[in-house]
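Re: the pair you flagged

First of the two:
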Amino acid sequence: MAKPIMARATAVWLVDNTTLTFKQIADFTGMHELEVQGIADGDVAAGVKGFDPVANNQLEQSEIDKAEKDPLYKLRLKFNPAAVGEEKRRGPRYTPLSKRQDRPASILWLVKFHPELTDGQIGKLVGTTKPTIQAIRERTHWNISNIQPIDPVALGLCKQSELDAAVQKAAEKRAAEGEVMTDDERRKLVSTEQSLDMPAEPRIPTAIEGLETFSLSDDSDDESEDSRPIVDADSFFNLPGDAGEDEDDSKS
């Protein structure tokens, strides 16, 4: 639903000049009902001059009259033929100047941990261009040696919900194409909430990788302790050379 311009100033005028309920004013201006109540109490919008929606061709007086008689009636914005076809323009995401230097780090993070994302998806998430993404993918960026991958959500370049939606879309696309994914890839292609709900996979320490089948214990259960040779302390010292020396000593 379209909202009036200068919504807060319009709410101030409606509070001061009508008997509309807070709910009706909040629905019309797109504000919260408690915020409208704060305007009436003088806690919100102090010093804001009211903006007359009737005089400024945004609301008909007949709409106000109907709403004052029926508390459940919702005000409707006056139709403006000049606004027909005027939609929000779609373009690249605006990135504040203070955060633009962080974009290469976020691009590298997305390329490294979510290679399934297309250049177009990355461009929409962090507000960058495809040549920049391609340069970081191919490691031909002029500052690639100094770029460290950083999560774009942590940098404030995009929301976690937006990243999850892009990842989920990539997962559906790969599933439709019939590509087989590994467990790690499948874990990356789900949202953060789903990933956190997954059971943790057991991981083998790097120091003993390749020794998964090695065991210090005897796996054969058929042998009993009675069938094993009995080893005593003397047997360790009865070496072959000791037997000959014992015989010579006995002859002498």
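Second of the two:
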Amino acid sequence: MPSNLILFNKPFRVLSQFSAEGDKSTLADFIDAPEFYPAGRLDFDSEGLLLLTNQGALQHIIASPDFKMPKTYWVQVEGDISDSALEKLRQGVELKDGLTKPAKAERMAEPDVWERSPPVRYREAIPTSWLSLQIREGKNRQVRRMTAAVGFPTLRLIRYAIGPYTLENTEIGQWKHIEPTDILLKEVTQFEEQRKRKTATSNRRRPSEKGHSRPQGNKISHGEGVARRKPSSKPASRSRRK
């Protein structure tokens, strides 16, 4: 049986969703796996690792910063990134929506990766450099804003890893079923048990209506707000992009 987890190497300018949006390319152009949805986001103009799942608890744990799955990016920036800029990234960068958490930031050699289409514009007078950046949060377009804040705008952004999962041996535009790690399965079990305990506690606190009669015309069944709605024909929304 296929697993509950899919690893996909998303190309540049592909939306991290299955639903159509204008003439933009979407996950539906690459992945044929009913009931699977992205666990988290990856920007239209970013490339690399995207995880998908058909299990709600897995989706929550992978996407939520509360579970602190580190995400590693390979970033091509404009200019030869300085030691002082790397140190600022490691300490945390002040953005409009607050201070980022400290990141792991290291200079790296240009990786041996696929050609981007269209390619990054080459400018002879301005050098470029690469860095590996690992973060544990998910502010909107965070990596791009972080490198710009320290003076080195992002030219190309590839997500290489999410936790233990990497792009190793996965070509651009390709996807495959993968197995959740033992640690991830343990987190799923703990999350579901915690959710069951909260539900049980909530039910115990709900006052009993036993022995309390209501006028027949105003009888209210449990879950009235749901019961009186007409069934929706609208498809379930899918995760959008990072």
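Residues 182-205 form the longest helix (24 residues).

-B.
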